[in-house]
Amino acid sequence: MGKFIHIIPIGLEKDRIIYLLQKFPPYRVYFLNYKTETREESKYARMVEPVQKEIDSMITLAEKKYLTVSYEEFEELFLKIFEIIVKEKQQGNDVIVHLSPGPRVASFASWVAASITNSKAFYIRPAEYLPKDGKLISSGILKVIDLFHFPITLPTDSEAFLLVYLLNHKGLMTGSLRSFVKKVGLDNLGKNIKSMNSGIVKISYCLRELKRKNYVKIKNVSRKRQKVELTELGKLMGKTCKILKSSRFNISSL
Questions:
Q1: Are strands 63-69 and 26-34 parallel, antiparallel or unpaired?
Q2: Measured between alpha carbons, how far is residue 35 from residues 17, 67, 82, 108, 226 in Å?
Q3: pLDDT digits (tens, 9 = 90+) for 195-232
Q4: pTM score, whole prediction
Q5: Statement: 157-253 belongs to CATH 3.40.120.10
Q6: Rounded CA gap, 239 and 251, in Å?
Q7: Taking the domains of the chain in order of start, what are their residue ranges?
Q8: Which fold has domain 4-146?
């Protein structure tokens, strides 16, 4: 078992955060803090400060990292959390993702990142909600839920390479299957792909699978030429695969 790493979207509550920190004593904690670009966000940040200080005082031996994110931007949250998890799992650590604190967008982004990386994600039902500063704040612990992983179909290594290739080329590729193979390279389509014919068969199959998974749109522009374009989901998965590629983390090992 590796060291426990916690990822916590910080908010106004503390009991559910403290419970998991005590259950899994942390070696390192990543706190996701709200961006303060507006007056309302700055006011919220000031309200959170006492909670942050109290939690910090309880984990004096743990390394603490404070990251600023927008809680409304799913893609930003997901990619940041995913990158942290991949980095920590590379070091053999066990990542604990907190789903209870923070807004729903942050919780969902955390859950998806935990699902892809096979990390632990916990949601805790509080014993009650109490009014404080015009808001209802959770108090106590009623039930701890070790959440199941969201079923996500990951691309294969060859499909992942195609997604990253498209992402690096403005999300678009037009031409014949033969030209696609030349652009991508036989070596990137699999170790058993040695000829142009086998490359055409493989890239045709990969593109069909990417289309089936809703990662690309394919349009015939002539009898032999196709236009392949990343969907919004494909762009996000391409960025996900790019993180794995840059960290040299094999997607099949997740």
A1: parallel
A2: 20, 9, 19, 18, 43
A3: 999 999 999 999 999 999 999 999 999 988 999 999 99
A4: 0.87
A5: no
A6: 13
A7: 4-146, 157-253
A8: Rossmann fold (3.40.50)
